[in-house]
Design brief:
12 helices
């Protein structure tokens, strides 16, 4: 079937294995960590307690870097910290596989501006679950950083342009570097990165499966929180879309939001300020 002059090919109609030009590196990275993770699970299905502890600790710091720094602070400007804390959290977000801060923020702001429309690059309403979960990462053109995140393209943030790849290599090999052997290599590296990746991706896919005909499809998924470790709070996604200007995502006392507790702690000791809270409805 030929496309008419007014029709445009939809990115989710591409073969799932075919990245867009310029995203070959992203696709290669995804294939690499999944392949290494499968090999690691076959060779070392039951890791030692030390390896489990270091893996969970790394997931925790990485989750904080992504939810507190990339999402709440940089993308939505719901709090401010001193520069050292900010750069420390950016390192852990990059180590966690979340990419350059300008790229992450640009994608996220674009998502909020056109949620669930055909222009929303990660909407399951348009491309289905797997498109929203993973495929959009390597099958869409990069978001325009100069338009969506211009403040993150210069200054100290330029460091992460050249540091991203070395940090990811360091992240994959951290188990060997710290002397935990091949078990540590697989579990503290690829298995951790695959786990963290899918916990983040579920926010785009699973928490947007509210099948409404019109409007925002975001929803809260209570049981996802414990699996996200310190990214708890991202599972309260309907809360976030309703109060995008709030640093707090768990709005009820029973909605666990460790990202918010971490922000509260930073504020209490003077390391965070200008923290925005949800407006009373």
């Amino acid at each position: 079937m030929e496309l008419t002059a007014t029709q445009q090919p939809r990115p989710w109609d591409r073969p799932f294995w075919k990245p867009v030009h310029g995203k070959e590196g992203v696709f290669t990275y995804l294939v690499l960590i999944h392949t290494l993770a499968i090999i690691g699970l076959i060779l070392f299905p039951v890791p030692s307690l030390k390896v489990v502890g270091m893996t969970v600790l790394s997931i925790a710091f990485g989750g904080l870097g992504t939810t507190v720094c990339y999402h709440r602070m940089l993308a939505h400007k719901t709090l401010k910290t001193n520069r050292f804390v900010e750069q420390f959290l950016i390192f852990w977000a990059v180590f966690n596989g979340s990419g350059h801060p300008a790229s992450w923020v640009a994608y996220h702001r674009l998502h909020h501006s056109v949620t669930d429309t055909p222009e929303d690059i990660s909407s399951p309403k348009q491309g289905g679950f797997w498109w929203a979960h993973l495929r959009w990462l390597y099958q869409t053109q990069p978001a325009d950083k100069q338009r969506w995140a211009p403040e993150l393209t210069g200054g100290v943030y330029k460091i992460w342009g050249w540091a991203e790849t070395p940090v990811i290599i360091f992240s994959i090999c951290i188990g060997l570097i710290l002397g935990f052997g091949w078990m540590g290599f697989f579990w503290m590296g690829a298995i951790r990165l695959v786990y963290s990746l899918h916990m983040q991706c579920l926010v785009n896919s699973l928490t947007h499966l509210n099948h409404v005909k019109e409007g925002d499809s975001s929803m809260n998924v209570w049981w996802l929180g414990p699996f996200q470790l310190t990214a708890w709070g991202e599972n309260w996604h309907q809360n976030h879309h309703t109060h995008a200007g709030s640093a707090r995502l768990g709005l009820r006392w029973y909605q666990t939001d460790i990202g918010w507790y971490f922000i509260w702690m930073l504020e209490a000791v003077g390391l965070a300020h200008s923290v925005k809270r949800p407006r009373a409805s």
